Amino acid sequence: MGAAHDWFSWVVIFANAAVGVWALAAQRRPSLRIPALWAATAAAQLTVFVQAGLGTWLIVAEGRQAPELHALYGFSGLVAVGVAYSYRPHLRAQMCLLYGFTGLFLMGLGIRAVLLDSAI
Question: Which end of the chain is more exposed for a tag (fewer CB within 10 A), N or C?
Answer without folding.
Answer: C
